[in-house]
Amino acid sequence: MKRRLLATAALLASLAAGAQEGPARELYIRGAFNGWGTDNALAHQGKGLYQADILVSPGNHAFKVGSRDWSDEWVADTNKSITVAPGTPYRLATQAGPEDYLFVRQTGTYRFTVDASNPAAPVLRVARLETPQAARSADPHAGREAVAALTWPTWDGKQETARFSSPDAAATLRRYAHSTTLALRDPGPQHSDYAEQDGLPRVRSGNLAFDALFALAGAEMRLDAVSEIRDGNYNGGAAIPCACFATGEKWHYVWTRDLSYAADLGLALLDPQRVRNSLEFKLSGWRKGVDIAPQVAGTRDGLQIVQDTGSGGSWPVSTDRVTWAFAAEEVLRTLPPGERTPFAQRALQALSNTIENDRIAAFDPRSGLYMGEQSFLDWRDQSYAAWIPAHLAYMSTSKSLSTNAGHHKALSLAANLAREHGDAALARRYAGWATQLKSAINKELWLEDAGMYSSLAAGHQDGAAMHKFDWLGQSLAILGGIASDKQAASILARYPHGPMGAPVIWPQQPGMPVYHNRALWPFVTAYGLRAATRAGNVAVADAAYDSLLRGAALNMSNMENLEWLSGQPLLLDERNPSLIGPVINSRRQLWSVGAYLGMVVGEVFGVSLQDGALQLKPFVTAKLRREMFGASSEIALHGLHLQGKRIDVRLRLPSASQDNGVYQVESILVNGTRSGERVPLAQLQDSNQVEIVLGKLAAGQQGIRRVNADPYAEGGATFGPREPLLAGLLHGPKGVSLQIAAGGNEGDVTYSVYRDGKRVADGLRAGSWTDRGAGAFGCYAVQAYSPASGNRSHHSMPRCVDAGIEVAVTDPRTSANLKPTGPNARFAAPRLEGWGQPGDRYAVDRITVPAAGNYQVQLRYHNGANQVNLGISGGVKWLAVKDARGKVVAQGVVQLPHAPLAKADTPTVYSTPLAARLQAGRYRIELGDFYNMSYLDSNSSFSAAGGLAGPSNRFDLYGVRLLRVN
C-alpha cells in the first residue's frame, strides 16, 4: 500500500508538471472495450488536460483510468460502480475501487477527457463525438464464381447468413473473403479476408464455407502466435520476449488454463514447439533470497506450475494450475523424440513439486478431494453464491468437479512420467492417489437424482454437493475416465442444451450479466463434443458441431463467448443495462481457436496421437454429412505434419441419409495397405496417404435435453432461485431453532435445511423451523428450491451453533513480535498490522478446551493487499496446535484470502479452518510461514503487492478462534 501511495504522489506531481507544460505521465483508458489493455493512451493536450478518442461498440462497458503497470487506478467512487452520463463531470478518486461503466447503444467514437489542472482533484468527462456515416462497402464476393453461404435461424424467428468466396479456388493455398449479416461485437466492417497458411493443414470438402472456416482458425492461430507478450500487471507493462501463444485479440499474455485447454483441444497437435515454449513460461522456481518454510515440499529450486493471479490472491484459493498437465500430455505426444526427452524430465519435476505442495495446502483427507475454485469459472459472482466474494475462505475449502478432474490428470500424467523415468515408487504413489481421487469424485460429487456430477461441494461447515452443474467439469469427467459408461450416457442425455448449444453452467444465476453466466464458450462446447464422440452420443455431437460452426461463421472469428440462448456476441438489454453481456468478448480467443481446429482434425477426421501411434476415429454424423458435405462423396485433410511426417487423410462418404446417426468405419488404408485404427508412428513414411471408407450408419445414443427461453427474461426454467439467508440460529431445550429468510425469492419457492452437509429437512417455507433433538455443535445451511423449474439455489452462508473460544491479539496469552495497533476509524478492533513476514512470530498459550471434541481452529483477520479478484498475495500460513506437553496434535496450512475493503470499520473475516481432535485441557497455537505465488520468480515483476517490492504474505491479524463442531 505504501508503494502505491508513493506512486500516486509521483503521478500527481507529474500531472502538476503537465499543467505547467512540463513533462507528463502516461495514463490510459482501460476497460472491457480494449481488453483492459493500454491501446488507448490519454494524450496530453496542455494545461493538465488529457484526452483519448475511442471507437466503442454497443454494451455496458466497465473501465478505469489507469497507468501502464496499474500502480495507479482512478475511479469515480471507491465504494461503488458509477455509470457515467456523457457530458457530466466526475471527480476521480486517485485510488483503487470498483469499475465505472459507460453504456453505449450504437457504435460511436467517445472522447474521454481527464482534466488534471488541479492534480489533487482530477475530473473525468466522457462525450460522444459526431462522426460521419461510413460509406457502404463494396460486396467482397462480387465477380467471384466460387461462392458459398451458411444460414442459421435466430432465436426471434429471423435468420443470419455468412457468405464465403475465393478468387483462387483451384490454388494449393486459397484466399477467402468472408462476410456476415450478424451485428458484430466490435467495431469494424462486416467482411474480412484471410488465407490458408503454409505449414498448416487445409481441408477440401466440396463445401467452400467449411474449408474457409478451417482456414480462418488456422489464420487466427498464426495471429495468436507471437514473439513477445505483455500485460499491464507485469514488467511495467513492457513487452516480454516469448515465442508463445497469446490468449486472444484483447488478451496479450499467457495464462495457464487458457493455454492448456487450447493446446489439449488442438494447438499441441499443430504447433507443439510453441505450446512447449508457452508451457515453460508458466513454470517458475523460487525468487532469489526468499526463505522457504521447512514444511514446503519438492526440490530445492521450487520449480512448479504458476497459478495465475485470481480469486483472493491466487493459489491455493484457486488450484487449477494443474490443468497445465492437459497441454503437457499432448505436447509429449507430439514433440519429436529429441525434444520430448528434456521436456519430459522438466515436466515431471514441475508436476511433482506442484502435486506435493497441493497435497499439503489444498487436499482434504476427509472427503478425498482437492479444494479450490472451479476451473475457468473464476469470476466469483457469476457462478457462486452472492456472499462468497466477501468470504473467500469458503471458496478455498469448496471442492469443484472441474478442478479435481485437473488434479486427476496431473496425477495420472506424473505417474506415467515417473514410470517412464524408472521411478517405480513415485509412479505407484501418484497412480494410487489418482485411483483414490477417482473414487472420491464418484462418492462425493455424483448426484444420483440429477444423473450428473455436482459442479462443486460447499466449503467448510457445510460440505454438501450442490445441485449446480457445469459442462466443462462433466466433459472432463467423461474424458478422464472418471465417469463410467453408464454415467457418461446419463450426463450427455441430461445436461441442458439451448437452441445454440450448451451453457457453461446450469442453472443460470439471477441478477448476473452474461459472461460465464448465461453463456456458451466454444472451448467448453468442444470438450462436450469430444465427450459425446467418446461415448457415442450423436445428438449431443450434432449440437456441438452446429454451435461451433455457427459461432465462427457468423462472427467471422472464433469468439471468446456468446450469449447462450440467442448466440449473440452481445445481448444489448436496454431495460437492464447491468445485465448486458458478454461483459467482455475477444476475437480469436486462443482456446476457441484450438477448439475449432481440434473439432475438424480430431473429431471430423478423427486424427490424434496416442501412445506412439496415429489414431484414426472419425465421427461423421448423418446431419453433418447432409448439411456440410452434401455435395461431395469425399472430404480430405491435406498437409498435416506430425513428428516430421506428412499425413494426408481422405474420408470416403456413403450416400447422405435423412436418418440420424454416425457413420461407422468400414475400412482404413495407410499407403495402400489395410490397417486398423491405430498405426504405430514407426511404421509411417515421411509422406503418408490415409484413406478411410465410411459405411453403415449406426444410430448411436440420441439422448439430449433441450431447453429454451426468452434470452431477455430472467427466471423461469433456465434460472435457479436466489440463495436464502440463515438469519437466526439458537440452541434451546427443544433443539436448534432456525430463522430462514427468503433472500429475495418470490412465489412458490421452498427451502431445504442442511446440517453438517446432510439434508435434514425439505419443503419448508421461509420463517422458523426447529431441528428437534439436534445437538449443540451442528453447522447449518439453507438451500432454495423452485418446484416449477426443478432448480436449486446455492447454499446460504453456514452458521454453527457453538459460539467458539475467541482470543484477541490483546489477550495476555498472546505473544508476537509486533505490538497491537488500533482501534481507529477504519479498524474497529486492535490488530497486528501487516503481520506475516517470514520471521514474524505469533502464538497463543494456555487456551483451555473444556471438553473433548472436534474443533476448527481459525484466524480472524483482514487481508487488503489487493482486491478480492486480483493479485498473488493471499495469506498462506502454517498453523500448529500443541498440547500441554508441547506435542503437536494438529498442524497444516491455513489460508487468509483477500477480503473486501471499506472506508470505515473494515470488516474482519475468518481463515480456512485447521481441523483438530482435542481432549479437555490446555493448548498452544503457533503460526508460521508457508508460501504463496508471490514467492515465485515469475512474479518478481508483478506491479502490485507481492511483486516488485518483494513477496507479500501479510495481513492484519485480530486473533484466533476455536469452534467446536460435530
Structure write-up:
This protein is of the alpha+beta class and 966 residues long. The chain has 16 helices and 57 strands. A hairpin with a 2-residue loop joins strand 30 (607-610) and strand 31. Helix 9 runs antiparallel to helix 10 (424-444), helix 9 (401-420) runs parallel beside helix 11 and helix 11 (471-479) runs parallel beside helix 13 (522-535). The radius of gyration is 29 Å and the shape is globular. Residues 1-19 form the signal peptide. Keywords: Signal. This is Mannosylglycerate hydrolase MGH1-like glycoside hydrolase domain-containing protein.
- Radius of gyration over C-alpha positions, nearest whole angstrom: 29 Å
What is the CATH fold-level name of one domain?
Glycosyltransferase
Indicate the low-confidence ranges by residue numbers: 1-7
Shape: globular
Note the total helix count.
16
Strands in their spatial order, largest beta sheet? 14-32-33-37-34-35
Percent of residues in helices comes to: 10-25%
Biggest sheet, in brief?
Answer: 6 strands, mixed
The assembly state of the depicted protein chains is single chain
Keywords: Signal
Organism: Massilia yuzhufengensis
Pfam family, one: MGH1-like_GH
InterPro entries: 6-hairpin_glycosidase_sf (IPR008928), 6hp_glycosidase-like_sf (IPR012341), Ig-like_fold (IPR013783), MGH1-like_GH (IPR054491)
